[in-house]
């Protein structure tokens, strides 16, 4: 699943969301953001910030 691969990259890399979109096979960054929001109930940037905040605790 592309969103699962994207969440892994958001957690483990410093790639920009547009680069992650390209690497995980989304049509473009907008398509990635739209599908990510639908699946994860938040933007890729929000997901990364949330994960980094939890990792720091």
Q: Which spans have pLDDT < 50 for at least 5 consecutive residues?
A: none
Q: Helix fraction?
A: over 70%
Instruction: Return the string of H and E elements.
Output: HHHH
**Tally of contiguous helical segments:** 4
CATH class: Mainly Alpha
Query: Outline, from the CA principal axes?
Result: globular
Report the portion of residues in β strands. under 5%
Overall pLDDT, averaged? Answer: 94
> From the alpha-carbon coordinates, what is the Rg to the nearest angstrom?
11 Å
- Annotated CATH topology: Arc Repressor Mutant, subunit A
Secondary-structure class:
mainly alpha
CATH superfamily: Homeodomain-like
The CA-CA distance between the termini, in Å, is 29 Å
Number of domains: 1
Strand elements, count: 0
**CATH architectural type:** Orthogonal Bundle
Report on this structure.
Helices cover 75% and strands 0% of the residues. With 57 residues, the protein is mainly alpha-helical. It has a single domain, classed as Arc Repressor Mutant, subunit A.
Defining traits:
57 residues, mainly alpha, 4 helices, globular
Topology record:
Elements: H1 2-12, H2 17-23, H3 29-40, H4 44-56
Question: In a few lines, what is going on in this structure?
Answer:
With 57 residues, the protein is an all-alpha fold. It has one domain (2-56): Homeodomain-like (Arc Repressor Mutant, subunit A), CATH 1.10.10.60.
């Amino acid at each position: 699943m592309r969103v699962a691969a994207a969440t892994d990259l958001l957690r483990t890399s410093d790639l920009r969301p547009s680069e992650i979109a390209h690497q995980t096979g989304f049509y473009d960054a907008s398509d990635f953001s739209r599908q990510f929001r639908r699946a994860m109930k938040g933007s890729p940037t929000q997901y990364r910030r949330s994960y980094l905040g939890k990792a720091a605790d």
